[in-house]
Amino acid sequence: MKEIKNPKTLQREMERLRRSGRTLGFVPTMGALHEGHLSLVRRARRENDVVVVSLFVNPLQFGPKEDFSRYPRSLGEDRRALRQEKVDYLFRPLAPSFYLSGHQTFVEARELSRGLCGRFRPGHFRGVATVVTKLFNLVMPHRAYFGAKDYQQARIVQALVRDLNFNLEIKVLPTLRDRDGLALSSRNRYLSSRERKRALAIPRALAWARDEVRKGQRSLPSLKQGILRRLRASKVRIDYVEFVEPDDLTPVRGLKAPFLIAVAGWVGKTRLIDNAIMWP
Amino acid sequence: MKEIKNPKTLQREMERLRRSGRTLGFVPTMGALHEGHLSLVRRARRENDVVVVSLFVNPLQFGPKEDFSRYPRSLGEDRRALRQEKVDYLFRPLAPSFYLSGHQTFVEARELSRGLCGRFRPGHFRGVATVVTKLFNLVMPHRAYFGAKDYQQARIVQALVRDLNFNLEIKVLPTLRDRDGLALSSRNRYLSSRERKRALAIPRALAWARDEVRKGQRSLPSLKQGILRRLRASKVRIDYVEFVEPDDLTPVRGLKAPFLIAVAGWVGKTRLIDNAIMWP
């Protein structure tokens, strides 16, 4: 695995590979890798000649009071895991050479960034769209891989690729979960074992809702109340529980067509998100 | 000259050319071509294996009360001129296949878009940055050519390329002028012969300022008053006369280092812009 820090060096190398006719698969990450990330890497490995992983804790997508400085970093382990998956390139830029002094160009997906996490993390998705645009221009991949746990992010990236005519394909892979059901997330490392037990209320509330829908429940207020009750019982401080269209993330009224339940909440000082698509 | 309307078709063709090792030069235009455009095309012809010109009157960069619908169109002549310059590809997308329904992703250069024309045409430079991003992703050129008449636009595109890591080089070529001194612009076609005479006050005021600076004039207020007086004498309705840093377009205080004088004003219903760099 070749490690590159300099953006221009990476871009030249990618240009050379692309010209040689090799296909490039790309997995952007912020490190602190878990099996969710590695599932993306494995899929990229199967579908492309060359696999590039970026590791960059993007300051632009953190709010001033958010966890940028304490975001988990585990470079040694990440490196070992990526080597084991036979990754070809690890791109690990330093912030000052990535956002040059005087940086002022930003990318924004308007409607998709408004609701859900966008309401609670102003500027977050502008940070995401901007970093992803930059990374796509540097790596010039044929395919890029994202996890469905960050559903809103994945939709925004898909819109960005379509709207800005990026010459690549986005693949969104299913959320991976621990045995207890908790969605894999780098931020799970923040949780004490007690908090972790409380956090399980999130996947359990979603699983309960799925069961209810299966049994024929079609009342949005009942489902929502049931979820809220379960989260509150575990003292999850709720940012939102929303029922939305899977495509444009606008609120659904009825529960006839497939819909997404998206949840964000705090367990102690840790913000967790999860979601599930329901097929009534 | 091959004419392509479909964005995907163009992108596939460009990808093929790039992979074959050919260099691509790109000149984005809104048509109604004049010698200024053609000077860009000629330079692109000299510096690249393949020359691509786009012709698209971009609705996104026009305000609701601006001249989008009456913007001059002269496809037949444009085509002949481009053929004569041995252009290889004319990309001429239709708006609905260029901005797909539900388009919501926009690119914005913050500080550079604020002053000068940005103040008078809100949203204009977001439209420019967005269309340029899309065109760069579709054409994937090695070099792209812009005219210095639209100085603020050129600076924004340069910032965009740097900030978003586009793998290409921007070339900004000098403003061309008619014999009478008027900067070439597609919008000059709007001018009656009387209006055209009045419009000459703009280049003449800039030429006067240049002379003054040459003679040692270092008072900004005197220069500005002199320019304003000259424009008003010809009944140019002034949007702005600004003295700014050539790099970041912020107002200059003293006149020691090189500075840019940028002018925008109306002659009848026609908005004209011009600028000149001064070397004290």
Strand arrangement across the biggest beta sheet of chain A? 1-4-3-2-6-7
Q: State the fourth-level CATH superfamily of the largest domain in chain A.
A: HUPs
Report the sheet-strand fraction of chain A: 15-25%
Class per helix and strand makeup of chain A? alpha/beta
Name the biggest interface.
A-B, 35 and 35 residues
Q: How many extended strands of chain A?
A: 10
* SSE topology string of chain A: EHEHEHEHEHHHEHEHHHEEE
Count of domains of chain A:
2
Mean residue pLDDT of chain A: 97
Rg of chain A over CA atoms, rounded to whole Å, is 19 Å
Oligomer type: homodimer
Terminal Cα span of chain A? 46 Å
> Considering DSSP H and I runs of 4 or more, what fraction of the residues of chain A is helical?
40-55%
Q: Major sheet of chain A, described briefly?
A: 6 strands, parallel
Give the overall shape of chain A: globular
Can you tell me the residue ranges of chain A where pLDDT is under 50 for at least 5 consecutive residues? Answer: none
